[in-house]
Structure formats: C-alpha cells, structure tokens
Amino acid sequence: MAGSGFSFRRGGGGDGSPKPARTALQRLVYWGSVLAIWGVIFLVVFFAVFARDLPDTSTLYNVDRQPSITYLDRNGALIAVRGSQMAPPADLDALPDYVPAAFIAIEDRRFYHHPGFDPIGMTRAIAANMRAGRVVQGGSTLTQQLAKNLFLSPDQNIKRKVQELMLAVWLEMKFSKQEILALYLNRVYFGAGAYGIEAASQRYFDKGAKDLTVGEAALLAGLLKAPSRYSPVSESERAATRATVVLNEMVDAGVITPEQRAQAVTEPVRVSRTLASQHAQYFVDWLDKQIRELVGEPTEDMIVETTLDLTLQTSAERAVRRILDRDRSRGVQQAALVALDGEGRVRAMIGGASYADSQFNRAVDARRQAGSAWKPFVYLTALESGYTPQTMVNDAPIRIGNWSPRNYTGDFRGEMPLSQAVAQSINTVAAGLAEQVGQGNVARTARRLGITSRIGLEPAMALGAVEVSPLEMAQAYDAFANGGKRVEAYGISRIRTPQGRIIYQRASRESGPVQAISNPFLYYQNQMLRGVMTSGTGRSAAIAGRDTAGKTGTTSDYKDAWFVGYTGGFVTAVWVGKDDNSAMRGVTGGSSPAAIWKGFMEAALPRLNAPDIPNGPAMPEGWRPPSPVESLIGQIGDLFGDNPPADGAVPLDEPLPEPVPPRREPEPRRDAPAVLRPTQPQPQRDPPAPQPEPAPPPEKAEPLFF
To answer: CB 3.0-4.6 Å disulfide test: which of 12, 15, 68, 410 passes with 83?
Structure first.
C-alpha cells in the first residue's frame, strides 16, 4: 500500500521476526525490581508520615517528673516518699555483673545481637499471641522500651509502635550497647515512685544499687513487667514468684550458676521497714491534703518533718494486728488508733486493718457513735455546775420525754456517789445529769475540748449518740492528760526544700495553749476516770505501776467499741468495728479496744518516760482535797458495763456558739429526774465484793469486763 504513516506489528524484531519470551529468572528480576522500587517509595512515604511528628530527641537527658515529697518522722527517719523519686545515675561499671544481666535475661535475651528491634522475638511473640487469642507475650526489645520511656506515650496503636521502632534504631545508631543499657537502668520506672535502679534500690532495700544481692536484683528485674502487680510491699507472694522466674532465666542464660540460684532462693529478701510499715501511709495521706492547703501545689521537691514516731507507730501496728487476728471470730474487722502527746502532736496513727486493702482513713474520716466514751463531757459539765465525785446520785428508772434509758446490767443500784456511777458507767445517772445541767452545756463542753463534729441535743446524746472520729476523741481527751489545756492535733512541724530553705514552719503560740478546764474540776475528773481503770469498766486496760485514766464506750448492738485512755501528757484513742456498721459479737470497749490500748501503751510508755497525770492549774484559795474517793470506788463489784445508747443523733441545724462559762446549779431543778433529786431513805444493799480478775486462757478471747 502506498502512502505515508506508521504501521504497528505485534512482537518481532526489527526485521519483523518474533521477540523471544523472557526466561523465569528474567521475570523474577524484573518484577523484583519493580516491587523494590515501589517498596522504597512506600517506605519513604510511610516513614515520612510517621516521622513527621516524632518527639524531639534533644530531650533525651531531660527528666519530666512530678516533685517528690519526702516525709520524715520526728527523729529524722524516713516514713515515705510521694511523687517521683530520682537518684544520681548508677555507674554501670560499678554494678555487680549479675545486676544488669538480670534485666537482659528477663527482658531481652538477644540484646547484644539485634539492631534495636528483634525480628525473631517479634515473630515468636506474634505466634504465641495468635495461639492464645490474646496478648501473652511482648516482642519489644530493651532498646524499644527505652525509646518508649524516653519519648513516647503509653498508648497502644500502630503509629506509636512504628515510631518506637524508628527511635530504637536511632538509639542503636547513636549509642553503644553499654550506653543504652545504662540509660535504660537509670530511667525505667520501678514502682513506689522510684525512677532508675539507684532510686529503686534505696526505696525498696535502703541500700545503693552496687550492693544489691542476686535475689534483690532478680526482684527488681521482675518488677518491670508490672510494678504495682509485682510490688514486694503489697504483693509479696506474687513478687517472690516473679523473682524466681527471673532467677531461672538467669541460670538458663548462664549469668549465674544453679548454686547461686539456690542460695538466692533460700536467702530472704528484706524490704525496707519504711515501705513495710504501710499503716503509716494513712498518716501520710492525712498530711498530703494539708500540705497543699499550706503551701499550694508542689513545684519543687520538699521534705516534710512530721510529728510521727516510727517506733511508736510500729508498736501500734503490732498491737492492732494482734487483737484483730485474735478477735476476728467475734466480728472485729477494722480498727483505728490515734496517739497524741500533750501538745497535740500525732505520735502514731492507724487508719484501718490494711492500707493495701482500703485506703479509707478511719482514724480521721470515719464518724462513729462514741457510746459511753462520750460521758466524760457530761461528767465535766456536771462538775462545773456544782457536783463533786462524792455527790450522791440515784441509779433508778427515769423517763425523759418518751425516752427511758436502761443500764447494761438491766437493773438499778440505787443511791451511790457520782464517782461510783462514773466507774460503773451507769447510764441512768449520765442521762439524768445531762438533763439536769442541759444538753446544750454538755455540747459546749465537748466543743471547748476539741470535738468538731455536729452534736445532736436529744437526750440520748448523753450516752454517746454522737458520731465522732478517733482523732477528735484523742484531741478532746488530751485536755484531761496535759493539765486542762485544749490542743489541736497536728502532724506537720516544718516543710523545707532538700537545700534547707524553709517553706513552712508551724508557729508556736506565744501565749501557750488555751486553758480549757480549771480546778478543782480537772482534779475531780481525773480522779473519777482513774477509778474507771482501777475498778471500773476499764480494769482490763490498767497497767501496773502507771498512773492511767480513761473511759470505755460500747454502742447499740455492739456496732462500735471504744477505749480512750491517757497518762501524763499522752493520750490514745482506739476504735474497733465493721465498715458496714453491722454488729460484732459481744465486743465492748473493755475487751478488744482496751486490749489494743494496753498492748500499745505498754510498749510506748518506757520510750516516752511519761510522768503522772498533772494536777493542772492552781486550786482556788481555801480549797481542800476531799477524802479519798478510792474508798468509795473500791466497793464496785465485778462485771458491770456500758449500756448501748439509742441510735439516731439529730445534728444541730447550726454550729454551736463559742464556749461560755458553765452555769452552776448547786440545787437540783424542781423538775429534775428522780435520779438527781434528794433521795429518800431506803434500804441499802451491800455491793458485791470485788472478785479477782481471772487470767485469760491461752489462744482464747480474754474475759470481758463491762
């Protein structure tokens, strides 16, 4: 065909012959090249996208953490550290070889043989997770963990994982393996606020990292999987099991010999006494709120010097634990204890049976009915209104409105001196006294001494139908122990920086504590409350050779039991019960609480070297001490107790006004209950002779003395 233009033919060579087909090898090379080019393009775009918002690696050596607060006891001993704790970096060359080897054995066995990520380990983890249908293994290398800890958030997503891989490779290119390992050990979180192996070693074992044993190194390495789950403080058994796994991996890796493993297993690892003393954490929680009120939100590390005495705290923990274990079968589930010195300084505080199980502080935040432990406020008001320990009162049936209180024993004992009614905790007398002197005046007395909770003014208030905290009760009773001065319980003496700059200093009152009780009323009150200990409801708490006084308290259906007692310049309040407010089985203030109080005070008093209960301010001119009341109290028989008061305190609509001088009514009102009116002559029955107190049988609950 003539003409111009292009003509196309399929295949063939330049001479029109067919083009030979590619061989299999040629096709493989061709398509491999195509895929490689597209793969490179994909990777460039992929990494460009994910690298676009990579974190700034110049922050590698910066530490972003919350300020730490270190709590010291009154003698400078460490109580706790809250917030992040850092320590100087540990020198890897100074550590025993088995310390870093423990972390490599359990976290990244191929650490020295991969470029930052471990394809073999990742494949193995993926296969294991697919077989289990859930995540059971992690494929992250030690370098990847370091990258995550230094630069990334803990979010679990593809983007973060890719960035983690990129940063791990960057770290491997920039640093040697030894430098990466050192960075890892000095920056990883070990729980309990400790960052880095040096801080963790000091926090858990009170020693430097260079002094760690094989077992301690294994325990710290095991923590990294889940610091709270494997904490040697709250999860000791789980931590021990995890440490054993680490030891087995160290043997398999040839880091330690089987003999070293056997020795590490049999050698106990002792956690710092500071961390083991978890009950002190209730005290730290109480202070933590106050610190922010005093100095605001912390912006720098602080050291808080407190009033706590760790030795006394340990004694309190032992006393509480012993009785909780002993009386568990009687329904005693929880306990709280507060001990104050004569200035109001908190020397020991127990907020519950176990801080690990419940952080609710029953010593401060719980409000429970006080029972007969409230009666001293009634007695003091009566004394200030003209009564004395020798004033005769009548234990007889009375009715106040629609309420008629009863005694624990169910009977009435007729005429007796007030001191005997106090020692025997006679409910009819306390109720009648409060009605006589006025429930409002009783409430003002309690306010004056330090009770801050709302106080109902119904008649049952006289028998303790008022909800208070152990801290309040200790604060109020402190006036009986220190010569009549009102105190405000506190736990912070000073707050300073580690460099010594004072941030807060508790101011001392120039005029001294406020005198809340004058004489002879304080003298009378202490004499009567001594009688509670010598031959009344608190006899089981008496300590031979010590001048002690106090009061038991038991509420309706045995829901709450109290003992608040004191010696010169030192008071301790104890409460036991259940969180759900259900009844215990026959537990009174003279049983479990008194046993805790006695166990603690017997351990504390030798350390305190406490004096006798002080007499307080000077007596009025011309006053002469009455004849000893012990002759009257000594007639008290065995087995008397508290009468559980009625429930249902009605809170005041408004806070009580400031204390006013108590009114004196030396003569009973005409409408006073019969218990306070002059008694008619009637046959008197001899009180039963005191019986010797039987010794408690071994491994059984102590006999009750109500």
So the answer is: 68
Tokens of 677: 């009116």
Decide: 129 and 116 in contact? Cβ < 8 Å. no
Find out whether the peptide bond into 593 is cis, omega within 30 degrees of 0: no
Scan for tokens 């005093």, then name that residue: 294
Residues 6+ apart with CB under 8 A from 461: 374, 434, 439, 442, 443, 455, 649
350 φψ region: left (φ > 0), alpha (ψ -120 to 50), beta (else): beta
Residues in the chain: 706
Q: What pTM does this model have?
A: 0.67
Taking the C-alpha atoms of residue 187 and residue 150, their distance in angstroms, rounded to an integer, is: 8
Beta-bridge partner residues of 82 = 69
665-703 per-position pLDDT tens digit: 333 333 333 334 333 323 233 233 333 333 333 333 222
Backbone dihedral angles phi then psi of residue 428, each to the nearest 5 degrees: -65, -35
How far, in Å, CA of 282 to CA of 284, rounded?
A: 5
Per-residue pLDDT tens over the stretch 482-494: 999 999 999 999 9
User: Could you tell me whether strands 302-306 and 69-72 are parallel, antiparallel, or unpaired per DSSP bridges?
Assistant: parallel
At residue 459, what is the residue type?
P
The DSSP line for 331-374 is: T--EEEEEEEETT-BEEEEE-SS-TTT----TTTT--EE-GGGG
User: How far is 53 from 353, CA to CA, in rounded Å?
Assistant: 50
Q: Whole-angstrom distance between the N-terminal and C-terminal Cα of the chain?
A: 132
Each residue of 115-144: pLDDT tens digit? 777 677 666 666 666 676 665 556 678 888
CA–CA dist 563, 555 (Å, integer): 12
For the annotated catalytic residues, the residue numbers are 107, 372
- The token duo for 74 is 């009154």
Q: What angle do CA 84, 493, 451 make, to 5 degrees?
A: 110
pLDDT digits (tens, 9 = 90+) for 496-514: 998 999 999 998 764 567 8
* Confidence band of 187 (pLDDT split at 50, 70, 90): confident
Residues 6+ apart with CB under 8 A from 530: 547, 548, 549, 613
Position of tokens 């294994």? 218
Reference 652, options 466, 472, 457, 468; nearest CA is 457
Amino acid making up residue 370: A
Phi then psi dihedrals of residue 418, to 5 deg: -60, -40
